[in-house]
Amino acid sequence: MTPVTESSSSDKARSVACEDNCFGAYNLIWLDRLINSPKYLDKQKELRLSINYLQTFDEVGECIKHIQSVSSQHRLIVIINDDFCQQLIPEVHGLPQVFSIHIYCENKQHDYQQNKLYS
Hints:
The chain has a 5-stranded mixed beta sheet with strand order 1-3-2-4-5, with helices on both faces. Strand 2 (27-31), helix 1 (38-48) and strand 3 form a beta-alpha-beta unit. It is built from 4 helices and 5 strands; from the N terminus they run E-E-H-E-H-E-H-E-H. The chain has a single domain (14-118), classed as Rossmann fold (3-Layer(aba) Sandwich). It is an alpha/beta fold.
């Protein structure tokens, strides 16, 4: 069972890979409606210092399609905003390529309820 925590959304996917196009053991998928805002662009830069591959989405349907299309031999860490929990988690929770799902939100009670459903 995939561990669940907090994350966000995308219509167009944008990939950011390390210079030599390498892929680490884990690929990060980040879904958030505001993924292209300056606040999140700065966070993406910070993340690229620690990971080899980051793919962002601002639309849940495209994110789900992408996750489902990834080989089960890859390991995905998914970050989503709590706005997308009910749409994304049931669709990808049991997939072997999904190592973990992290949900971020400001409503702590909501966090707890989501974690209980899928932990």
